[in-house]
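A quick aside before the break. I want you to see a complete sequence-to-structure record at least once, exactly as it would be stored in a machine-readable document. Don't worry about memorizing anything.
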Amino acid sequence: RPLSLRLLLILLIGAGLLLLALLGMWGIKAVVNQHHADLERATLDMSRALASAVDAEIESTVAALVTLSYHPSLAGGRLEGFYEVTRDAVRARPYWRSVILTDGKGGIIFRSSMPYGPNGVRLTDRESLEQVLKEKRPVVGQVRPGQFGGLAMPVRVPVVSGGRVQYVVSAALLPDRIHEILTRQDIPAGWVITVADPQNQRLARAPEHSAFVGKPVTPSLIDLMAGVEISGNGTALNGEGVESVAGITKLPRWGISVIVGAPTSLLDRALWTALGMYAAALSLSATATVAAPAV
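That is the input. The structure line, written in tokens, reads:
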């Protein structure tokens, strides 16, 4: 018995709908891939911009320390006079906790926040001091609790004379200064920005800076950062355990990294939105086909 024209029409339209569905799935995949690429580009662009701002802040601190190191009282060996100069410098810079002067062997001469002399002064990041003495260049250390509490990151500058390090002038930079840079940024909802020190400790974070500063970044992020030379993207878990598309920019001179993360749930949302719209369109097409009048 020959098929009715209506049945043939339904089969023909059904085959067309199947092809349309396959094309639609390919189109949805393309849309999600594009959205993923857009997230990667946006997070990387933001991390690069913030890395430039962080680099400028550290360069500014180094420049101020270099200026201090040229002060006549230090060059002339009048160390008590230089002690007073550093106290004035700290008062003029609210994001410096103190200035520490050490000799060419790493011995402490004074800390500006304490009475003059080495008595009672303790370094909390001797590794970075040893690095300055060895490499004879400015170095950024690890964010750590200070001798009397409160987190700070040492920025150290050598004073070289005759090819030898005679002194090292160090400023304890407060993490709040770096956090202030992050808060100037218009951060989309759900995104997280992290600045990591040379030991992958959080120097600053937005949002929830106070809850995470001084703590290590996640192991998955450390693994991702290890594969990035200067800048790049990948997927890692943030501090709350949320899977995120991460844009990473490194400052090799200082060993600092700036990471901007956007939750991958944004991609899932885009996928389900596209699937819902497409399913609704297919359902309407199928309903219209079944309801077509017989001929």
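Two observations worth writing down. The helical segments are 5-69, 72-75, 79-92, 126-135, 175-183, 209-212, 219-226, 265-290. The chain has a mean pLDDT of 86. We'll return to this after the break.
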